[in-house]
Amino acid sequence: MSDEAVSDAQVMERSAARASSNLRAGPAEETSRIAWLDALRGFALLGILWANVRQMFLPFEAGGFAVVLGGSERLAWLDWQVFHALIDLKFLTLFSLLFGVSFALQNERLEARGHGFTAIYLRRVLILALLGVAHGLLLYSAEVLLCYAIAGLLLLTMRRWSAERLLQGGLILLGVTLIWGYQIGSLGRVSFVLTLVSAVMLAAVILLLWRRSRPLALAAWTAVLITAAIVLTLQFAGGNPEDALANEYRAAQEQLAAIAGDAVETAPEEWLVRQSGDFGALLQLHAVQYALLLLYLVIFLLWRTLALFMVGAGIFRSGFVTNGSATEWSRVARLGLGVGLPLSLVATWLTQRELSGVVDWRWPDFLHMLSALPLAAGLAAVVFLWRARPGQRWLWSLVEAAGRTALTNYIGQSFVIALLAEPWGFGLYGRLNGVAMTAAAIVVYALLAEGSYLWLRYFRLGPLEWLWRCGTYWQWLPNRRAAA
């Protein structure tokens, strides 16, 4: 064989090796990432932290209310109104939708490269579940990673579903969880008959109208849910007055007063454990709270999360995430904010009147849950549009960096807040009012986003993302940029 033939053979062999290497199962290259999804994920992390600080600095029963603790009562109520109307439940909804989008995106890319998706995905959710359990027992008992892992396993059974089937099924399941959660949460009673009837109504509305007009189907879906809330309110009118939201608020105020005055006799158990500084007792408290969370997960949270995963996966498979134009996203912003924001504002106003004991209607919480999906969609569209504006590149580069290292930031946020709150750290549990907690969330988010940006200058993946990917793809992945 001539030297020229040998040289050509070597070139062809190297080319084939490079092609084979490119087809190996592995994480997405930086050039194939959808940057605005990273920005949206980073934006959602701010809302997640904003909500979590209220449960990490205070007893669970008190974190959802206006917290004065020595500050201005007017500012405390304003802080609560902003939190309840714009943050609470909305960003968790957005985060869940993004997980469904990521599922469909990863499935599409791996199958396009000729690799099996199931084994890789099973390792992915197993590692996520283990991280969730460790996170819940050591740092923050109301974490969502274990719930995401279990819902992700259920979503795997729907990997062959079409976009339309995922959207219809997800919306029906979400509607059922709204009604179910309203019964067991706001009323304390459950009617299986009403739940089944409502589910059938939702299914009929969506299946009959979806092909003709999706906006009409969504409008009818909303109308059915509101009608169900009114029926449930009439069904259970005159319930136990002790279940009134105003009574829950008074009990929370008593807990906060006991904390502020160091009244050991009436202080909640959480505060006593954290004041003792006993790390073993703290772990036991986390374990008890985590067990209660698992019960809540089985009853409600898992099914709502799965519904949002299905909707997110359906949206991606429809092609809208990658091919939607600015005009279409503007329409989503107007529709989502136009529906979701008024519902949320009305729910917040009515809830404040409930807290004050003026009314006891028991269904504003339903409007609050109903507003989460359209408001999350509107916020996602706003991020898409704002990110394209000139002159804001520095800001969105930080937000994108946080989104690219979302797992590290999510657990890192819990660690930093725990460091501030717990007795093994600065011991600020029960010492901050609502405004101070909001400020702490924003500062911690900004610092971690800046840290993520600096980290990504030298590494391809965040530290936890790198470990997660190595375990998911069962191979050692180079992470330093020079090595990568």
Shape: globular
CA distance, first residue to last residue: 37 Å
| Topology pattern, helix = H, strand = E | HHHHHHHHHHHHHHHHHHH
Count of distinct structural domains: 1
Annotation field: number of helices: 19
**Low confidence ranges:** 1-25
SS-based class: mainly alpha
Q: Estimate percent helicity.
A: over 70%
Structure description:
- With 484 residues, the protein is mostly helical.
- The chain has one domain (33-473).
- 74% of the residues lie in helices and 0% in strands.
- It contains 19 helices and no strands.
- The protein has helices spanning 3-22, 35-56, 73-87, 90-112, 118-138, 145-156, 163-187, 192-209, 214-235, 245-260, 269-276, 279-317, 320-323, 326-355, 364-387, 393-404, 406-421, 434-455, 463-473.
- Helix 3 (73-87) packs across helix 14 (326-355).
- The radius of gyration is 24 Å and the shape is globular.
- The model is unreliable at 1-25 (pLDDT under 50).
Write the layout of secondary structure elements.
Layout: H1 3-22, H2 35-56, H3 73-87, H4 90-112, H5 118-138, H6 145-156, H7 163-187, H8 192-209, H9 214-235, H10 245-260, H11 269-276, H12 279-317, H13 320-323, H14 326-355, H15 364-387, H16 393-404, H17 406-421, H18 434-455, H19 463-473
Helix pairs in contact: 2-4, 2-15, 2-16, 2-17, 2-18, 3-14, 4-12, 4-15, 5-6, 5-19, 6-12, 7-8, 7-9, 7-12, 7-15, 8-9, 14-15, 16-18, 17-18
